[in-house]
Amino acid sequence: MARGVRHGRASIPSGALRHTTCASCHTERKGARAGPRPGDGTRRPGAVRPDRRRGGAGRNGRRRPAVDHAMTTWGLIGSGNIGSTVARLAIAAGHDVVLSNRRGPETLADLVEELGPHARAATPEEAATAGDVVVVTIPLKAYRDVPVAELAGKVVIDTMNYYPQRDGQVAALDAGSTTSSELLQAHLPQSHVVKGFNNIFFQHLRDLARPLQPAGSEGRSALAVAGDDAEAKVTVRKALDAIGYDTLDLGPLAEGWRTQPGQPAYGTEYALDPSDWTAGTKPVTSDELAGLATHATRQV
Question: Looking at residues 245-252, what average pLDDT do you find?
């Protein structure tokens, strides 16, 4: 079958892009970019339709997560640029963080000392067990190393992007028949995966956070999320609000490609100078982010 272009607007169901605020808290452009990457867990230099149901079975028989209004602990599987930035924002919001990486807790001693008493280092299995929400922020090629049993029933935020030059060729991703987050969801069948943090440079994530401003207020930026479980997205929305961000719901995990490398909503929108991501930031509203995501195109 000949390959063609599926234009983003035509493939988004009506009303799929949802702008969110936290009512409980306040009433791929074509070609890979060299240098630092949004959502890259390595040290080298995203209104939800809340599902009010509690308990019961979710999609594919997974138990629905309860919405925890008093989340206190973030688990980090990967503690590179994005992971350490999320940790700093979470601690600033009054939460605890448990950091991990593949090299062992002892290699995180300096970072934990810098972050202070609300941070500790652990193994990936321990971080998965401890986290109320767990962020997976590692190179995609290592996704099969993410612990499975310890994440059963948990909300998992996936920051990973597919970079073939680093991760190797993945036929299903090259064909557009799945997304990187759907690969992680298949690996974690009893977890609730939500795509997030994958399209923002870590310095922009750090500098654009506005935790003291009400959701939807001027100067507050939005991050995109995608996921198959509505309550999991509510949990992530509340977590993002706590660290200073509004949320744009792209829809199910299958729509997460709209903020992947090569798309208009991948990274440059938060940069004051798109040619130099270290030159400053500019806020991005949910309307602006939605417009970019809607104009995404995909080869199929």
Answer: 98
